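pls read this stuff:
=====
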Amino acid sequence: MRTRRTAASKPNRRRAAALAALLGFAAFAATAQEAPGFAFPGEVDIAPVTDEELEDFTVAFYEVQILQAQLDEEVNEVLDEAELDVQRFYEINELAQKAEGEPELPGVTDDELEAYQDTLGELIDIQTVIQTRMIEAVEDQEMEVERFNEIILALRTDEELVERLRPLLEKHMEEAQKEENSEF
């Protein structure tokens, strides 16, 4: 049996966010096909998912959700501390995307552009670090990132896979909750 690493040392609010994401994902995946007007772009054709892969996926998914919560928190902190207010940052970001590399953005001062570039650089650095950790979280479960992503996509359309995943998610969440409670 393989040893799986967990995020036992992560702050409790990140763990709570991950638990909520797991619950939300399970509920979303289970009911998405039933929602009127809701459609996924066709079924995903992947190799059958073994029970061991699904167990590894559950642990990796949990870890990725913790890291996603951390990314969201750090992005919000950077935006809160930026020299630009959040709305102006997004306005400049939209202009920069439309400008496609033009040296000047209409209606943006040099100071605003510098603050935007500094903030964007910080956000890119944070995202790069967290994405690397996400990849490591998946690979720590001896799973390829491509396979992890295939399973994510398959869960959107494969009700049987969702039903196999549900008890694993519930078990993992219970174990994580017990671990969290024992830390107090």
Observations:
- Residues 12-182 form one domain.
